[in-house]
Write a structure and sequence with these properties.
single chain; Rossmann fold; globular; about 15% strand; two-stranded antiparallel ribbon
Length: about 290
């Protein structure tokens, strides 16, 4: 049994797991724990050189770790399609972990608002392309930031609204939850599952430097008090990936404000359980990536 803080993982020998954003933060911690448990982990990363360096570090602590580094940029759908075309093996667990947080409105290579395009649309296309090969479950890393968001499908890319970075981030995380909800509904008859997770407040590089020096220092200071190390933040993902939980579950820390603690089943906002909105988001997403 491999161990991460307060969590024992089952033996995953023979299982194949894809982890996006596997080079830092909870993605790296998730990869390390899964590899230590015996899984073959496909590290889907933007920077292959960095991915190779991280894989070498992980092999140093887990000799024989089965790690495969492959290029994937969720902000460029051409690379998403390329990744999917090159992949032919069954996938036991797919973990949609990668994410961005930005204070300035920017666009992906395909002209999408950066946060929605990367956090949701890139993962949407990747998952739907690989779905015929996924045999077990899909885990979507969302966030409790979704609670303050209301998804505007009339202007999802913030072309006509005054751009508010955190609101846009929250909308991308709400989209993550709605995607997991609708995906699980569609998977229902097949026995496969989709689950969403909230990692809590994690001390990671997400958004680091995006908010100015003063704000970054404040965030870092608060994170050192209220946040969790990446290995603890990865627990929600690992529980969702390996434990017997109902499809559609939302897992996150049980501590104050869901910032830290032991993974448990969480509630979510009214919008995040809106089945009609989830179906409309799916249809809209298909139109965007087609």
């Amino acid at each position: 049994m491999a161990t991460t803080p307060e969590l024992d993982l089952p033996d995953l020998t023979g299982r194949t797991v894809i982890v996006t954003g596997a080079t830092s933060g909870i993605g790296r911690a998730t990869t390390a724990a899964l590899a230590d448990a015996g899984a073959r982990v496909i590290m889907a990363v933007r920077n292959v050189d960095k991915g190779a360096a991280v894989a070498a570090d992980l092999r140093a602590t887990t000799p024989g770790a089965a790690l495969d580094v492959r290029a994937l940029d969720l902000a460029d759908l051409a690379t998403v399609r390329g990744f999917a075309r090159a992949w032919t093996d069954p996938v036991d667990i797919m973990i949609n972990n990668a994410g961005v947080m930005s204070t300035r409105r920017a666009e992906t290579a395909d002209g999408f608002e950066l946060q929605l395009g990367t956090n949701h649309l890139g993962h949407f296309l990747l998952t739907t392309l690989l779905l015929p090969l996924i045999t077990g479950r899909v885990v979507v890393v969302a966030s409790d930031a979704h609670r303050w968001a209301h998804l505007d499908l009339d202007d999802p890319h913030w072309q006509h609204r005054r751009y508010r970075a955190f609101a846009a981030y929250g909308e991308s995380k709400l989209a993550n939850l709605l995607f997991a909800l609708e995906l699980d509904r569609r998977l229902g008859p097949t026995g496969r599952r989709a689950l969403a997770v909230h990692p809590g407040w994690v001390q990671s590089d997400l958004g680091l430097g995006q908010h100015g020096l003063t704000a970054t220092r404040i965030s870092t200071a608060l994170g050192s008090v209220f946040g969790q190390i990446p290995e603890a933040g990865a627990r929600s993902t690992l529980v969702a990936a390996t434990q017997d939980l109902p499809g559609g579950s939302y897992i996150g820390p049980d501590g104050l404000g869901a910032n830290r603690g032991v993974p448990t089943l969480l509630g979510r906002s009214r919008d995040a359980v809106d089945a009609d909105l989830a179906r409309r988001l799916w249809s809209w997403s298909e139109s965007q990536v087609s």
